[in-house]
Amino acid sequence: MEQKLRSASSVDELMSLIYPSYWAALKCRSKLSAAASLATKFIQRPAADVEEPTYAAAYLNFDILKSIELEWRKTQCMPREVCIDVGREFGAPTNVFYKPPCVSVYRCGGCCPSEDKQCRNISTGYLSKTVYSCLSCLPAAFQHVAS
């Protein structure tokens, strides 16, 4: 059971493992209430409504679970836009600098749902970026004129 919990890849899967029958009923109730609220826009209901059934452990808040799911999705292993230092990436000599000094690329990042896996790329490609390279050591004549 612990291995299944550790390898769960979504809130839905996790809740299905922890509360199997309750989670199914709660999801069904959620879908029914969503359909009922949609139906009330089109159909006038009589004043004496039938009371909705209540379920045990109704303390689970779907808004909280949705925020957990959103955070979970953000942290999954996938390509992410990162900023890299051009000089460090290419091992430039210390007298050379680049403008812009950093460029945006996509690199693999995030967490895997299972501890026995590691987030890393399965393919690579070359990306062309145009930067301006400058020599930080100016000739002596230019240094004297500039000061």
Task: Please work out how many helical segments DSSP would assign.
Answer: 6
Query: Percent range for helical residues?
Result: 40-55%
Structural class: alpha+beta
Global morphology: elongated
- Biggest pleated sheet: 2 strands, antiparallel
Pattern of helices and strands: HHHHEHEEEH
Measured distance between first and last alpha carbons: 72 Å
Please report the total strand number as a whole number: 4
Number of domains: 2
**Overall pLDDT confidence:** 74
**Rg over alpha carbons:** 28 Å
Task: Give start-end ranges of low-pLDDT stretches.
Answer: 142-147
- Portion in beta strands: 15-25%
Keywords:
single chain; PDGF/VEGF_growth_factor; Cystine-knot_cytokine; PDGF/VEGF_dom; Platelet-derived growth factor (PDGF) family profile domain-containing protein; 2 domains; two-stranded antiparallel ribbon; Cystine Knot Cytokines, subunit B; disulfide bond
